[in-house]
Design brief:
By secondary structure, this protein is of the alpha+beta class. Helix content is 38%, strand content 29%. The chain has 7 helices and 9 strands, in the order αβββαβααβββαβαβα. It has a 7-stranded mixed beta sheet, with helices on both faces. It has a two-stranded antiparallel ribbon with strand order 1-2.
């Protein structure tokens, strides 16, 4: 059994805006200079083509029914930062109720999804994957809808990508991100 990062260490790190990634057998900790976020207000944008695809309801969206499988789907690529230590650490975090998966299923099985970590008012998106067109995007839209319903204030994506920008994703400087994270957590705890 691989070693794991203790749940309390992970939660403390996230509360301080720091997260782990595996690289060549080592666990490295990151706090990017510019932090990626997805808005949870009217600035969140669903691209027209995705809206059209969603009307056809190609997937059944489920929550927390295949957490490990979602992580394995996210890790199934040429280069990954999800090794056995990260996998087991986040599965333990999930078992403790602090990590969640959003999954897209069809008659052929799990086709995509995402997972992340939850603290009061904040969701830290870790990774997403798709085996079929739009599966991860539909999981992201479902996540945003749920976070809005539950009155979350921040959806952290760690780094910004062009893929996330199409949803209204933006960046904050580390200092501003840390201030915003602290503000949300102070209000919620």
């Amino acid at each position: 059994m691989p070693r794991v990062i203790p749940t309390n260490v992970l939660l403390e790190a996230y509360s301080r805006g720091v997260f782990p990634m595996a690289e060549e057998g080592e666990i490295l900790w990151f706090s990017p200079e510019r932090r990626g976020l997805i808005p949870l207000d009217e600035r969140f944008h669903v691209p027209h083509g995705l809206k059209k695809a969603m009307r056809k309801e190609p997937f059944e969206v489920r929550w927390n029914t295949a957490f490990r499988e979602v992580m394995l789907g996210c890790a199934d690529r040429n280069e990954t930062w999800i090794d056995d230590v990260i996998l087991e650490s986040y599965c333990a975090l999930h078992a403790a109720g602090h990590a969640h998966s959003v999954e897209c299923w069809d008659e052929d099985g799990l086709q995509g999804g995402l997972y992340g970590v939850e603290l009061p008012g904040v969701f830290f998106g870790e990774s997403m994957f798709s085996r079929k067109t739009d599966a991860s995007k539909i999981a992201l839209v479902a996540l945003v809808e749920r976070l809005r319903e539950d009155r979350f204030e921040l959806l952290d994506t760690q780094w910004m990508t062009s893929h996330l920008r199409q949803f209204g994703g933006y960046e904050l400087a580390r200092k501003d991100y840390h201030a915003e994270l602290e503000r949300v957590l102070d209000r919620r705890i």
